[in-house]
Write a structure and sequence with these properties.
Elements: E1 9-14, E2 17-22, H1 27-33, E3 57-63, E4 83-85, E5 90-91, E6 102-104, H2 108-123, H3 139-147, E7 165-166, E8 171-173, H4 183-190, E9 197-200, E10 207-210, H5 222-227, E11 233-235, E12 248-253, E13 262-268, E14 271-277, H6 290-293, E15 308-310, E16 313-315, H7 317-328, E17 333-336, H8 343-356, E18 360-361, H9 382-387, H10 400-407, E19 413-417, H11 428-433, E20 435-440, H12 445-449, E21 452-455, E22 464-467, E23 472-476, H13 489-499, H14 509-519, E24 536-537
Parallel strand pairs: 1-6, 17-18, 17-19, 19-20, 20-21
Antiparallel strand pairs: 1-2, 3-4, 3-5, 3-6, 7-8, 8-11, 9-10, 12-13, 13-14, 15-16, 15-21, 22-23, 23-24
Helix pairs in contact: 2-3, 7-13, 8-13
The structure holds iron/sulfur cluster and FE2/S2 (inorganic) cluster.
Iron/sulfur cluster (SF4) is lined by residues 178-184, 208, 228-230, 232-233.
Length: 563
Amino acid sequence: MIAPPKPDLITVNIDGREIAVPKGTNMIEAARLLGIEVPHFCYHPKLTVAGNCRMCLVEMGMPALDPATKQPLVDPTTGRPKINWIPKPTIACFTNAAPGLHIRTATPLVRDCREGVMEFLLINHPLDCPICDQAGECKLQEQATGYGRGYSRFVERKNVKPKRTVLGPRVMLDDERCILCSRCIRFCQEVAKDDVLGFVDRGSYSTLTCYPGRQLENNYSLNTVDICPVGALTSTDFRFKMRVWFLKTTPSICTESSVGANTEVWSREGVIHRITPRRNDEVNDTWMADSGRLLYKLVAAADRLTEAKVAGAAVPVDEALAKAAESLKTGGVAVVGSGRSSVEEQFLTRQLAATLKAPAWLVSRVGQGDGLLISADRNPNVRGALVTGLIQALPAAQLTDLAALIEAGKITTVLSVGEDLAAAGLTAAQLGKVAVIYLGTHADATSAAARIVIPTLTVFEKNGTFINQQFRLQKFAAAVPGPQGVADDLATLARLLRAAGGPALAGDVDGLWVTLAAEVKQFAAISYASLPATGLLLDATEFAGLPFAEREALHFKPVAANP
Ligand code: SF4
Ligand code: FES
């Protein structure tokens, strides 16, 4: 484990309470540390400050100095430093910590400011919260309740603006709800680097739109929906499908690449309805790619494997497991693990390969990195396979060595833990020469050719950990139960290991971490339960010389000079 460096601290005073905050912290964040909410709309911690909504107005003051000595003056009544309060309110989002800075967030002036801002924002905003898709997570609704005056003096007709405007393939705009905070515009300019949104027209007629001939279609477009504080931007996939208060959230990790973006899986009664990013300032900030949000559709895909099979006939999972154990005892076994498997599964796969004295492979998947949150390595957990010892070198995309051993008649049984062997280069003739045991989630050429198929769980249906490109160990949890008839991967591997004459290891994540902490030096003193939600950085010195495929991206710098 590696400890992060300590920042420079500055002491500020908020509502009479002092707090030391890192240099550069603005007053919204400083107040948050004291449990004080400064309401805001346009400010977002990961975007530049626009200062256009004025909801965060506070009173600000600095210690008064003696003009002659430049020393702080003391208030004789309190014995404390005298504060010069600025007569006009100031915006907290654009006020950074300075030594001795004082702010007041709960005075009559501040309350008046908030009520005034809310009144102006609601002038043209529809008051139809019950039918709005943002209901339940709308900042405008929440802050109208918390900081508004509670009634409207507006008797004129509201502006009518365009509805259901298609901004791009995944994002829809209801313009009359937009409060012109510009978060979406700044996100596209600053994070997605796709300057595509802007305001046209003036005053009450200001309208958000795409530049002429352009669409909001970059692979990060749905982040604008996440950060829109009102119901103006909605996801075409999720819009009006489910009320958010019915949904429970489960922390997860995106498996799209080795970035390991932290995510939240939203589900109800065993069905997943959406995936959104979970904030991790060391990995993905508050963002994730659109493509990763659709991965939940694999759970209920038509080609999902839900029946164990032996020689093409459906059998109970226990029977398929017994047949697989028998088959593995015949010798001539090869094991193909996966960079998509969890650390725990990879550890058991390595134990199984060692017990069977079988060579083990992994299959690499390398594509183009986008320099942001999709890395070149499209496996989420190749580093897990290195740390657990399943592999010693980086994998290749094709199983050429395994193919040669099959051709030479040295391998007669192949256990694939979630990898499509055909996609990894084994021909139909080679697959026909061996008995394939396939543990997998979806039908493919390998499941079709396999003698034994054991259906397993997707990442959304199990607990586990991955190690991302930074060598950060991160955990995910089961959001929904697996379909009936599907086996738990870890329990299956633990049973196969036991049947092969290996050690009796736990087939659950918590139990297995006792062994992992004892046997893998990078995991010493770690347990699954105590692993922080933001993950733990592991010591990767041992692997620094490997030519990993990833290039520089958000919060990531390659350690070794990649060729
Ligand atoms: S659409 Fe939403 S995020 Fe964009 S400017 Fe309007 S309120 Fe802000
Ligand atoms: S949050 Fe909008 S002006 Fe400060």
